[in-house]
């Protein structure tokens, strides 16, 4: 079976909707792999006889592996056919998930989790592929739609893993995820076009060019810093939620996973933010998103003043708010960064997401330690402070996104 090649001239036409949906599905399945463990931490502790700090290393190593994979592997999208990379990583990620489900002990699971993070960078091959396929006037909308799939994968993964783990055990979650990735790989093999090589550099020169890009574009640096700071609070919340709900409200993994439904409402921000960025520029969207996240996290601090049912309601409302803010900011940052240098989209994306997932890994680690030593309100304070820092970065003066994109 032959597959047509995508060429830049083909970008004048809108991307077919089935192809956009395929990319969105793949991005969602890939990034979901990073979050399956979070609602299951209490179950993992019971299964392996480990404490919360030890099992908290599972999401931490997964996020760290993702950050390393983005930095070391995602730039390859500018050097090789993205279709080949997507197919290869689909298989490798499925194998890593299967190894997680079959892990005989905690150390084996920790090692497999690191590999899951490395290969889940499949998502960071898919999003630049969508940006390359889309015409400039529809890039924000197309990236936003694919990001909706990615963000739903992040949020609904917690729902699925919580429910499946409660019914079939935590191992069944990883096995089901591996099967889903293999099915996506089959459909992608049939449906994805080939992509031309954007930058035929050797690996060492390709990696060296990351430093050049980082120093050349101040808007890239601001985007990576701001998204990374937001990610600290985002990850601290989600990595400690299951433990907090169990300790304070005696709720199990299914309830913790169900909070993903509240967060999933935030995924609606992706296409909305993409359209707004197309029309009015991404800078305004980044400020609105960071500000909404900070306010939403701060509202959680009012929980102890309310009765238990009202505390849950407030937590749901705030979860919708901060997820909406974080995702809107991310799509706006991607729209901004992808416009800086079309021949370096995979590398620019790698730098943006390296900053973001260093924040994710830091948030998972900080959240676990802060919860253990100072309690849930300290986690809320941590998230609020870091969201405020992200807003401060976005409020700093600088060149407009359009000037930066033009190299002015």
Task: Describe the fold and architecture.
The protein contains 18 helices and no strands. It has 408 residues and is mainly alpha-helical. The protein has one domain (14-406): Up-down Bundle (Growth Hormone, Chain: A). Helix 11 runs parallel beside helix 16 (345-374) and helix 12 crosses helix 15 (308-338). The N and C termini lie far apart (46 Å).
* Main CATH class: Mainly Alpha
**Helix/strand class:** mainly alpha
What's the main sheet like? none
What is the helix content? over 70%
Q: Any idea what the shape is?
A: globular
Number of domains: 1
Kindly report the name of the CATH homologous superfamily.
MFS general substrate transporter like domains
Looking at CATH, which topology would you report?
Growth Hormone, Chain: A
Give me a quick take on this structure:
The chain is mainly α. Helices cover 77% and strands 0% of the residues.
What keywords describe this structure?
408 residues, mainly alpha, 18 helices, 77% helix, MFS_dom, MFS_trans_sf, transmembrane helix, transmembrane transporter activity, MFS
Describe the secondary structure blueprint for this structure.
Elements: H1 17-32, H2 41-48, H3 52-55, H4 57-72, H5 82-101, H6 106-119, H7 123-133, H8 139-168, H9 170-191, H10 203-216, H11 218-249, H12 253-264, H13 269-280, H14 282-299, H15 308-338, H16 345-374, H17 376-395, H18 401-406
Helix pairs in contact: 1-7, 1-8, 1-9, 4-6, 4-16, 5-6, 5-7, 5-9, 7-8, 7-16, 8-9, 8-12, 8-13, 8-15, 11-12, 11-15, 11-16, 11-17, 12-15, 13-14, 13-15, 14-15, 14-17, 15-16, 16-17
């Amino acid at each position: 079976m032959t597959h047509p090649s995508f060429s830049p001239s083909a970008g004048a036409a809108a991307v077919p909707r089935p192809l956009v949906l395929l990319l969105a599905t793949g991005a969602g399945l890939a990034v979901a792999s990073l979050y399956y463990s979070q609602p299951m931490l209490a179950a993992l502790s019971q299964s392996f006889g480990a404490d919360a700090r030890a099992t908290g290393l599972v999401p931490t190593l997964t996020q760290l592996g993702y950050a390393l994979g983005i930095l070391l592997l995602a730039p390859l999208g500018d050097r090789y056919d993205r279709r080949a990379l997507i197919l290869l990583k689909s298989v490798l990620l499925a194998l890593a998930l299967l190894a997680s489900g079959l892990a005989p002990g905690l150390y084996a699971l920790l090692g497999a989790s690191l590999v899951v993070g490395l290969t889940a960078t499949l998502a960071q091959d898919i999003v630049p592929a969508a940006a390359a396929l889309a015409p400039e006037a529809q890039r924000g909308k197309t990236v936003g739609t694919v990001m909706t799939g990615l963000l739903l994968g992040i949020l609904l993964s917690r729902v699925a893993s919580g429910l499946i783990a409660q019914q079939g055990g935590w191992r069944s979650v990883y096995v089901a995820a591996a099967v889903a990735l293999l099915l996506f790989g089959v459909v992608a093999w049939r449906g994805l076009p080939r992509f031309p090589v954007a930058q035929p550099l050797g690996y060492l020169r390709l990696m060296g060019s990351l430093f050049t890009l980082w120093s050349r574009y101040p808007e890239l640096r601001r985007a990576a810093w701001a998204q990374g700071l937001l990610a600290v609070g985002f990850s601290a919340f989600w990595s400690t939620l299951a433990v907090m709900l169990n300790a304070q409200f005696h709720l199990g993994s299914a309830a913790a996973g169900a909070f993903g439904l509240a967060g999933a409402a935030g995924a609606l921000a992706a296409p909305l933010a993409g359209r707004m960025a197309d029309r009015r520029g991404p800078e305004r969207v980044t400020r609105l998103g960071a500000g909404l996240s900070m306010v939403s996290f701060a509202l959680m601090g009012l929980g102890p003043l309310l009765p238990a049912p009202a505390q849950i309601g407030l937590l749901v409302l705030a979860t919708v708010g901060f997820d909406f803010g974080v995702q809107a900011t991310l799509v706006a940052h991607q729209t901004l960064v992808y416009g800086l240098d079309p021949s370096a989209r995979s590398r620019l994306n790698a730098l943006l997401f390296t900053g973001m997932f260093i924040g994710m890994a830091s948030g998972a680690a900080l959240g676990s330690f802060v919860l253990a030593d100072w309690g849930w309100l300290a986690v809320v304070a941590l998230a609020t402070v870091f969201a405020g820092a992200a807003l401060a970065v976005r409020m700093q003066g600088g060149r407009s996104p359009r000037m930066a994109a033009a190299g002015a």
